[in-house]
Specification:
single chain, 123 residues, mainly alpha, 6 helices, 85% helix, 0% strand, elongated
Length: 123
């Protein structure tokens, strides 16, 4: 009886990926990734990215705990502080303050001020 030597699609894909990775370096993958990202951005709008971001965030939150987020936040903060100076933080602080003031009224500031005062009293 003849034996079927056809490779599964999964097997062919795996072998092709292994061969490609042997023949190309990091820069190759960065370049094709950039081209793919540019092509995707031309074909999709803001809502598309919001939707996939939300789905990714939900999936990530199901798979990770509070410590995971603390660790990546700390790493991100350290990387940011290594790459930016005092003026950068002053500028983003100013922008954040302006955005907050546009979105909140006097009562909001009274409430957070009261909470801050109470926290300080407990120290």
């Amino acid at each position: 009886m003849a034996q079927d030597n056809k490779m599964s699609r999964e097997e062919a894909g795996r072998k092709g990926g292994e061969t490609t990775s042997k023949n190309h370096d990091k820069e190759f993958y960065q370049e094709i990734g950039q081209k793919g990202g540019e092509a995707t951005s031309k074909n999709h709008d803001k809502e598309f990215y919001q939707e996939i971001g939300e789905k990714g965030g939900e999936a990530t939150s199901k798979n990770h705990d509070k410590e995971f987020y603390q660790e990546i936040g700390e790493k991100g903060g350290e990387a940011t502080s290594e790459n930016h100076d005092k003026e950068f933080y002053q500028e983003i602080g100013r922008k954040g303050g302006e955005a907050t003031s546009k979105n909140h009224d006097k009562e909001f500031y009274q409430e957070i001020g009261s909470k801050g005062g109470n926290a300080r009293d407990n120290d």
